[in-house]
């Protein structure tokens, strides 16, 4: 077996020598491919200085069919909406993690690409997909054309999307304790989560109805909702839970989130929540 | 041994440049793609007033949306459309475009502008298009040029889309597209029936032109064999249809509006033409009347003054006047509420008039068939079973139209009125009297 293998190598070498010897007649010219960079706009330069250079994150707002689902009816953002959306992402997500996890945290564990889509990604059942995280590398954020910085609820939803998708990115780098998690509310996961009211889902130990789709979404929803709540808001939310078992389940999930951040990234989750709260207020009051 | 033979073969051909095979192309694939890219770029920039495209995203459910584009060398494009008047889409906006190189060369509108209004999953005209918007695309694959037009195919569903050179008038007059809408919706006072008449130079073929919906910009045309989709786009001087009306080897799609009779006509060569027009005579005579003939199952048709039937555009002005005349000739507090046709009922065939403030009346009739004329003739038998009593004076004028000795055209309509019931219209031959009913049994 080995002998044949060596023979093959010798043969390949001979072939390559022959090929090279014939190539000398014509020297390779310049590439025929057009590799000139397209003209950079002010926005492109801002993205380079704010995202690409400091964080090595590429932001793609111009339509590229290879990074979106072509079976969906989506559209690229309005140019003027791009920078405001990215400023929110930078302030609430990048800065919060940098404060708590250290300046290099997001540089190490970050999506390498953020794709912005202007339109709503409406599903046939009537739900909207707000964001997608793929392979720990790319986050797609939808509805950037509809961000209204003066509307707290609107900004909260967008921030929720970023936080939620980044939790997925973190999980795609280091898994959470799935075994313990799936033991907390095993009976609550349903495919048609959108048919349940949020308070109804809260009372069986889920922070949102979407959390009921599977344990990965449950983890991302639990962590991201705690991050977008202020400390007081979250306390008030828990106080409102009537079912003791649901309350215990929510607390158990919270504890697993805190443990995950500590063990996987040596990060104080509550400090992160506090940093996010401060940065959120900055965005909304500005 | 096998490997050795292969090695020899390589040796023999490696330095041989003189292959006898004719090269299919003079250039490499990369060179050809680059050339196409340059060619498209040059074409887009070549028209001083830019380009116009009437984009039919899916002519089985939707019509056409006119877009105007003016491309600049710096990668920006100015765009206007007639998507809707409310959003003032005809006011142009600037965004970015790219000519992208993938499996082929394509034009992509990379940041948001008017054309993206057709591709918004959250803005769909009918429930059947939930999450699909108007099924629009904004990446167009380049397929060359023909007669000064740029030919694209849409990336998503491979439909042809042609860019034609735009003029200054196209930009100035885009807003006039909205003024054409009422003419396309139609005006019942111009004629009771609307049809498409196709003239191939020697003979005329006619189709029913069914009610047009501005929500989808779509309608259908019907002949005895079936129904065909007709997507419609607006133009300042008329309308554009897709698929085109095909006559022989000619394709007609641009119809010009004629203000005097409300018609739209597309003219080909050699006396070929197609015209969407009005008439008080049906364009298409069907066998729909047969449902009323004796020997058939019991059927019932009803017009009601307090329900959707009263608002039907297919009730003629004369019919509405006659209804009003009945009420006017009745004593105060009495008025008509319904006109129903009972056919093959156990009691016989009768027209059943109902009122507020007085008892119902049954006008028993015989139903005669006119096979050649594709119509029925109703013959008086009795009022409420009494063969000697005269027609009540307040009903005489109205009832007389239904007793038209020349007969009644019966048509099963393609539209619905509020409910899922099939709609039938009854039209007297000698007049413009036409009544709209639901089939109730």
TrEMBL record, chain A:
* Keywords recorded for this protein, A-Z: Lipoprotein, Signal
One Pfam family linked to the record: Peptidase_Mx1
Q: Which domain of life is it from?
A: Bacteria
Q: Where is the signal peptide?
A: 1-23
> In its UniProt entry, what is this protein called?
Substrate import-associated zinc metallohydrolase lipoprotein
TrEMBL record, chain B:
Q: Which domain of life is it from?
A: Bacteria
Record Pfam families:
DUF4302
Q: Which InterPro entries does its entry note?
A: DUF4302
The protein depicted here goes by the name DUF4302 domain-containing protein
């Amino acid at each position: 077996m080995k002998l044949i293998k060596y023979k093959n190598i010798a043969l390949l070498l001979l072939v390559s020598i022959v090929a090279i010897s014939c190539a000398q007649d014509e020297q390779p010219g310049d590439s025929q491919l057009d590799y000139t960079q397209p003209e950079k706009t002010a926005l492109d330069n801002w993205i380079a200085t704010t995202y690409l250079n400091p964080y090595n994150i590429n932001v793609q707002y111009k339509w590229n069919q290879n990074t979106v689902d072509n079976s969906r009816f989506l559209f690229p953002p309005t140019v003027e909406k791009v920078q405001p959306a990215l400023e929110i992402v930078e302030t609430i997500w990048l800065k919060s993690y940098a404060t708590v996890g250290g300046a290099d945290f997001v540089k190490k564990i970050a999506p390498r690409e953020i794709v912005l889509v202007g339109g709503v990604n409406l599903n046939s059942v009537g739900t909207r997909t707000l964001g997608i995280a793929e392979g720990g590398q790319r986050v797609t954020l939808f509805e950037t054309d509809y961000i209204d910085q003066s509307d707290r609820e609107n900004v909260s939803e967008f921030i929720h999307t970023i936080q939620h998708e980044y939790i997925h990115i973190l999980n795609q780098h280091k898994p959470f304790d799935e075994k313990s998690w799936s033991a907390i509310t095993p009976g609550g996961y349903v495919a048609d989560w959108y048919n349940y009211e949020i308070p109804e889902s809260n009372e069986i130990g889920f922070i949102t109805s979407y959390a009921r789709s599977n344990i990965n979404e449950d983890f991302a929803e639990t962590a991201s909702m705690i991050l977008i709540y202020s400390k007081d808001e979250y306390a008030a939310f828990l106080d409102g839970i009537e079912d003791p078992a649901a309350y215990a389940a929510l607390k158990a999930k919270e504890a697993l989130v805190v443990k995950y951040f500590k063990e996987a990234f040596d990060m104080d989750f509550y400090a992160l929540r506090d940093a996010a709260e401060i940065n959120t207020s900055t965005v909304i009051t500005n | 041994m096998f490997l050795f033979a292969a090695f020899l073969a390589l040796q023999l051909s490696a330095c041989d440049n003189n292959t006898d095979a004719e090269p299919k192309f003079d250039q490499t694939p990369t060179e050809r793609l680059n050339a196409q890219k340059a060619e498209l770029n040059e074409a887009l920039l070549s028209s001083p007033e830019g380009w116009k495209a009437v984009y039919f995203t899916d002519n089985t459910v939707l019509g056409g949306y006119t877009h105007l584009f003016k491309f600049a060398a710096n990668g920006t494009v100015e765009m206007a459309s007639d998507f809707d008047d409310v959003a003032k889409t005809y006011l142009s906006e600037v965004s970015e475009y790219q000519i992208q190189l993938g499996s082929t060369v394509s034009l992509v509108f990379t940041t948001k502008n008017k054309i993206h209004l057709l591709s918004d999953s959250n803005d769909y005209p009918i429930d059947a298009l939930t999450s699909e918007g108007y099924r629009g695309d904004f990446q167009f694959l380049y397929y060359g040029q023909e007669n000064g037009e740029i030919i694209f195919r849409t990336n998503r569903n491979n439909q042809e889309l042609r860019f034609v050179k735009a003029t200054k008038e196209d930009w100035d007059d885009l807003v006039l597209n909205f003024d054409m809408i009422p003419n396309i919706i139609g005006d019942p006072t111009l004629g009771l029936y609307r049809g498409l008449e196709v003239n191939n130079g020697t003979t005329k073929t006619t189709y029913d032109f069914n009610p047009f919906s501005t929500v989808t910009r779509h309608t259908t045309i019907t002949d005895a064999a079936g129904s065909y989709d007709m997507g419609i786009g607006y133009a300042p001087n008329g309308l554009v249809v897709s698929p085109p009306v095909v006559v022989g080897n000619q394709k007609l799609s641009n119809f010009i509006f004629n203000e005097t009779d409300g018609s739209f006509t597309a003219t080909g060569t050699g006396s070929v033409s197609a015209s969407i027009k009005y008439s008080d005579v049906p364009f298409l005579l069907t066998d729909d009347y047969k449902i009323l003939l004796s020997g058939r199952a019991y059927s019932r048709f009803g017009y009601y003054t307090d329900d959707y039937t009263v608002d039907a555009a297919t009730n003629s002005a004369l019919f509405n006047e006659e209804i009003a005349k009945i009420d006017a000739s009745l004593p105060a507090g009495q008025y008509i509420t319904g006109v129903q046709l009972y056919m093959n009922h156990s009691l016989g065939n009768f027209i059943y008039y109902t009122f507020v403030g007085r008892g119902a009346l049954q006008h028993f009739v015989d139903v005669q068939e006119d096979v050649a004329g594709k119509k029925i003739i109703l013959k008086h038998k009795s009022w409420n079973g009494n063969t000697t009593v005269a027609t009540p004076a307040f009903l005489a004028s109205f009832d007389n139209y239904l007793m038209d000795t020349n007969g009644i055209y019966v048509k099963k309509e393609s539209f619905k009125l509020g409910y899922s019931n099939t709609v039938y219209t009854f039209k007297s031959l000698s007049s413009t009297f036409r009544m709209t009913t639901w089939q109730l049994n």
